[in-house]
């Protein structure tokens, strides 16, 4: 395993154990058995390192979106969207601590914002991708054309993101499966 | 102004400047011109102090929910919900850094979780309150009875919460007003 990989692993471990706030480059360097200087040789800063953890170590939404895109025109729209919502929920549950940690750290968020603006990336892109898939289903006559696809995508992703956050604070009464099924049924109803 | 108030003000200021991660009791004590021991005399821990900031200093959702409840049966349902969504969006924009900071700090989140479980409070309660309002509008025949009120409330609050988070990371293309209007129209459509 290369040094870069070892540093990313160590960062992931440190975030898991101590949170973003406690995942200092000193701790990461000890865990990766390298110097702090070597971390900065591979990553411009903590922002870049944490983004690498997000993009390279955590389950991504991209495969789930690709699978949903593959299922356009096939099977049951509501069932496909429910399966996607459950994957999104799991994804957000895994990433909520990193995203939250960044939000709780003003200098880090400024760095993230600049980096995302430069690369054109961002946590809003899955909403746009989902909206495009919903539009394709509308063109195929499988989804109510009166639905605004962008708004529907905002609501489905937003509900999953919010629920993943809430679950960190309280025990939610209903289980994820029935919750996701009811949310999608309400969203796609005719 | 009493000591307790002065400490809460200092904590709010420290969170704003340094984030949750940097809002140490030492910094808060300096700002409040008191000892760290005095902070712990008024608050069992950082969790309790940060919760006091959330509950006593930030604009609350409760008045917005009360206003929405007052408007049941009056005016246009979609317009009422859109106005509420905009208030929720502003509320979440103000609280996202505190909530996120807690999520990025594993010991803090454990303390928060225990405290919320003990008091029966929690960030999921506004969803339940909104769902109850939607049910009342359904009973009055002003909202499609096919809508699951709980799911609709999850989606509306979730979309607002998610958008407040996204806005910290990227510049969103559409303005809040038209976004909220389209989301509500998609949610309440018949």
Automatic annotation (TrEMBL), chains A, B:
The organism's place on the tree of life at top rank: Bacteria
Keyword DNA damage: no
Record bears the keyword Transcription: yes
Record-linked PANTHER family: HTH-TYPE TRANSCRIPTIONAL REGULATOR BETI, HTH-TYPE TRANSCRIPTIONAL REGULATOR RUTR
Record domain HTH tetR-type: where: 1-61
Name used for this protein in its record: TetR/AcrR family transcriptional regulator
Alphabetically ordered keywords of this record: DNA-binding, Transcription, Transcription regulation
PROSITE patterns: HTH_TETR_2 (PS50977)
DNA-binding residue intervals: 24-43
Gene3D superfamilies named among the record's database cross-references: Homeodomain-like (1.10.10.60), Tetracycline Repressor, domain 2 (1.10.357.10)
InterPro entries the UniProt entry points to: Homeodomain-like_sf, HTH-type_TetR-like_transc_reg, HTH_TetR
């Amino acid at each position: 395993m290369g040094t870069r990989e070892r540093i990313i692993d160590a960062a992931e471990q440190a975030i898991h154990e101590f949170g973003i706030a406690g995942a200092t480059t000193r701790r990461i360097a000890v865990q990766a058995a390298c110097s702090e200087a070597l971390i900065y040789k591979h990553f411009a800063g903590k922002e870049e390192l944490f983004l690498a953890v997000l993009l390279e170590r955590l389950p991504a939404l991209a495969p789930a979106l690709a699978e949903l895109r593959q299922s356009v025109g096939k099977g049951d729209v509501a069932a496909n969207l429910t399966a996607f919502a459950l994957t999104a929920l799991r994804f957000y549950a895994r990433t909520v601590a990193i995203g939250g940690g960044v939000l709780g750290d003003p200098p880090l968020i400024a760095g993230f914002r600049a980096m995302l603006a430069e690369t054109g990336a961002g946590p809003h892109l899955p909403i746009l991708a989902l909206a495009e898939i919903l539009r394709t289903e509308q063109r195929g006559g499988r989804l109510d054309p009166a639905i605004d696809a962008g708004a529907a995508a905002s609501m489905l992703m937003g509900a999953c993101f919010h629920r993943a956050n809430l679950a960190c604070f309280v025990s939610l009464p209903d289980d994820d499966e029935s919750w996701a099924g009811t949310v999608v049924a309400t969203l796609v109803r005719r």
